[in-house]
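A note from the maintainers: we've had questions about how concatenated examples are separated. There is no special marker in the raw files; a new sequence line simply starts the next protein. For clarity in this README we add a label.
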Amino acid sequence: RTNPCLGVLARAASLQGMAYAPLSRSNGYVAGQSADFNQHSQHAEMSGLLRILPRSESMDVSNDPRFLTNSVIAKRLAAFQTITIVSSLMVCLSVKQMFFLEKGIDIHTVKGVVQYSGFCLMTIVFLMNLSTVVVLTQQLFMTYRLLTAGPTGFEIAKSYYLNPNLVTMRHVAVKSFFFSLPTFVASSGCMVWVSFAAAGTQKLAIPVVALLAIAALTLLCANLKHMSIFKERYALAKAHEHPLLEHVDVVVSQSASGGFPALDV
């Protein structure tokens, strides 16, 4: 008499083998299956309208388990995502303020000089944040694509991330974002002065404009202080790291040359 438990186990094993059957690259068929999903789809071929567009090819999709684990590059890119989101908001806000500003400017008056200065500062804020969004978005997109390119995805993404050209553009983009914040506050102060001057109450704007000017200088000093402390800590980390790496290299070289006895484990 056949044991029913053996029958259940055999059935489970057969289903598991079908689920994990390898995909053949030659004909696109899955082992144990007799149909290709693309061949029986009415949208398998490219439509005629899309053929006029520039030719593009998608990267190979391979389910490498290492893609599910965090890496140093992924953690660094997570920090840039926050800057990209805030820069996008700053782009929208600066453009809105640029169009709201009155265009009737008389340069020969104090009001006109302040008004035009605020407009120029807001334009600088727009351009700095727009460049930040363009650079960081492209690097985020392409780095993540290279990370999932295959077994050597991390190494390729690392070489792309540390490319001198990309490093320079990324650092300039990040610095542009942080310097655009005090510039935006200064431009807002100019626009506040213009609004009060149009109503003939410039004296009421003096405390607000002074407060905004102090806030802009505070943001600038805070940015410079953060950068200074970061460079100091980074240099300190490298200074403590160098002797340790030298010691490890010495130990490895002596072990390879037989200077140390083999471990008895």
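[label: protein 2]
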Amino acid sequence: RHFTYGVCDAHLHILGKCLVRVLKDSLGSAFTAEVEFAWTMVYNFISAIMVGGLQVALSEYNAEQDDISMPPTPGRRSSWHETQSIAQQIEEKELLGEGSFIEGNMECYQIGRHLQKAIFGDVFEAIGMDSGRSFAVKALDLDLVRRFERLQQEDHQFCESPLSEVKFAKTMSGLEHVVQMEDEFADQHRHYIVSELALGGDLLECLRLRPGGFPESQAQILVRGATMGLATLHLRGLAMQDVSVENMLLYELADGFALSLS
């Protein structure tokens, strides 16, 4: 439904910022950093579901256009062109999407498809222009990162850290079953964290696509990967806060998958 209204990812990003500003003006001193964090998490959870729906709707729309036996849906076609026009009116600094280029410390990256929402930003597929390798790029809103980093310094019980991968990168370096940071950098609006792309996606999504689960031999490999990842983190004095299947990424091998903790 929202696709036919002309809604796109960029609108949801701007809406999230507007929501925070309205709450700040309305609540006054009651709008604490903890309240902002709670609302940010709730909105990003909802918008992640909506982005997924928009991507499905766009895929269906494109399929209609490619199918000569099915005439285009006039209302939906019109809405999409209007969406493109509206998105072009949003300040360029607010937009990061397919085809964009970002200059990293290691190389320049071309942004590909949107993979998922993160608490503090978005995750995109990307290609390294020098290496030709596929990466996952987490693009974090710089304003949010700075605010919550300050909150963590002021309140040690607030354990959510937007840049935990950066903070503990050296400690986690070389761990076989833990996702390794390949690059990190910032521009005027975002902080970027680059890692190898997990073509198998996360374990939760993979299980959804496999109602019967994995063969026992493959399941053993995945469980061992998760266990070894946690064990090696503990040996280096680190604890993983959110041990969940969403944070277990699958890397395709010739004969199955390897698992790393994210």
